[in-house]
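lol so apparently i was supposed to do this last week
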Amino acid sequence: MSLARVHNFSISLDGFGTGAGQGPDAHFGHAGDRLHQWMFATQWWEAGGTAGVDDVFVQRHDPGIGAEIMGAGKFGHPGWHEDPDWKGAWGPNPPFHTPVFVLTHHTRPSIEMEGGTTFHFLDTSPAEALETARKAAGDQDVRIGGGPTVIREFLAARLIDHLHVVVVPVLLGRGVRLWDGLEGVEKDYKIEQTSSPSGVTHLSFTRA
Ligand SMILES: NC(=O)c1ccc[n+]([C@@H]2O[C@H](COP(=O)([O-])OP(=O)(O)OC[C@H]3O[C@@H](n4cnc5c(N)ncnc54)[C@H](OP(=O)(O)O)[C@@H]3O)[C@@H](O)[C@H]2O)c1
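anyway here it is w/ NAP bound
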């Protein structure tokens, strides 16, 4: 069976996967870009960037992925569903290039974008969403793309096979936490830790 994989999911030292106060011009709320500066420094993000350990991890985001599942909070800022023309935060050619299943209580017809990305909107359980995404992905894996609420739901339902979390040495103090309600979830996984000279720590959770 294809795997459900999380890649490059960045959290603060105090466990927040996004900040407070998300809005149209603040996708990560008061966190700004602090959770992803490690990624922006890599050659994966921009030519001339670093080619070290952060780049090795970040490159694993796309290979073997045939579909993504994301939450309504990643697809858009609070209230996006009131805008009938909202097509996500990535412009006409989003960086997914696969079917993307948006979990939301505000479903709408699918939206075909340039470059192979089609957004589909599902109001269903994580298990059923994963089954749908697996069919769309063929024999490839499904990426669970975030945000923290959706990854937490999939972890609670024991649906994640591989989880790559990047711990960033900032304290956000407020926002949306990844780990709440998941006591003991680490027992299901083999865990490896890789420290990067950039200051972040990569944690790889692989289902035992
Ligand atoms: N740290 C990272 O690496 C990373 C990665 C990706 C995104 N992010 C950030 O994370 C933030 C979004 O995360 P979030 O935790 O606020 O929200 P989220 O996980 O993206 O989405 C949660 C929302 O999705 C809908 N939903 C979830 N499960 C559902 C289900 N089973 N059925 C129907 N609807 C369901 C609900 O919204 P409705 O009820 O409104 O439909 C719920 O409030 C953004 O700031 C984004 O930029 C961070």
